[in-house]
Specification:
Elements (H helix, E strand, L loop, with lengths): L6 E5 L3 H9 L9 E5 L14 E6 L2 H14 L3 E5 L11 E5 L2 E5 L7 H68 L5 H49 L2
Parallel strand pairs: 1-2, 1-3, 3-4, 4-6
Antiparallel strand pairs: 5-6
Helix pairs in contact: 1-3, 3-4
């Protein structure tokens, strides 16, 4: 099951931050596409397509706005606080709330590459989890559809005997009606049409019976093959 290429939206007023994040993103077989937007211009999250947002907040007010806006978008995001918290004491921590991961600290006292590396590593794990969840949801949807079809198939198989009995009655009465003397040719033609349609439906239900036998044989053969494979693997 393939997964489409992901898009990482970088929200920052500092072009160097976006270049550093994209340049130091961890290598992978399917790297994401990067889109850059000034955080001051990010107003309509519904109009932006992205799988992960990395925001470079420059103030507590900016961080609050970005968290609130990104939460409404319903997509995972990383918000990096660019200001110093608690006076002169730098803080480096992370937590998640409503799909938002916060990285707090003083970037003035840190190497820009460090923040880019942290954002890249955390972001890659977030995307990996999102892709796994997408595959899980797709598999669950397929499984649900298969269960619906299997239930319908079982019902049709169980009811084919009743349907055949009803068709036999319809067929017999249609043949008796066609043999009734003195009937108009139009009525005889209609009785013949009913007879032919009943025969066609009977052929369809006979195919159901044949298909059921074929599937049962295939299931038994598959079970035997798995048993032989397990036995060979245990030697």
């Amino acid at each position: 099951m393939s997964v489409n290429r992901t898009t990482v939206l970088i929200l920052s007023s500092n072009p160097a931050f976006a270049r550093t994040v994209s340049a130091h993103w961890p290598a992978s077989a399917n790297p994401p596409e990067f889109a850059v937007l000034d955080q001051e211009l990010f107003r309509d999250p519904a109009g932006s397509h992205f799988d992960l947002a990395i925001a470079d907040a420059s103030s507590p007010e900016s961080a609050s706005y970005l968290k609130r806006t990104l939460t409404s978008a319903g997509k995972p995001a990383i918000v990096i606080h660019a200001y110093r918290a608690h006076g002169d004491h730098a803080l480096s921590s992370s937590h998640s709330e409503g799909g938002i991961v916060e990285l707090n600290g003083d970037k003035e006292d840190s190497e820009p590459q460090m923040w880019a590396d942290v954002a890249g590593l955390v972001g890659r794990e977030i995307l990996r989890r999102s892709q796994a969840e997408a595959r899980q949801h797709a598999a669950e949807e397929i499984c649900a559809n298969v269960n619906v079809e299997a239930t319908l198939g079982r019902y049709m198989t169980e009811m084919r005997h009743n349907a055949n009995n009803a068709l036999t009655t319809v067929l017999g009465n249609a043949e008796l009606l066609a043999l009734e003397p003195g009937l108009p040719s139009k009525v005889i033609a209609q009785a013949d049409t009913i007879r032919n349609m009943a025969l066609r439906l009977n052929e369809i239900f006979q195919r159901f019976s044949s298909l059921e036998k074929e599937l049962s044989v295939a299931a038994r053969e598959s079970g035997k093959n798995r048993a032989r494979a397990c036995a060979a693997g245990g030697r």
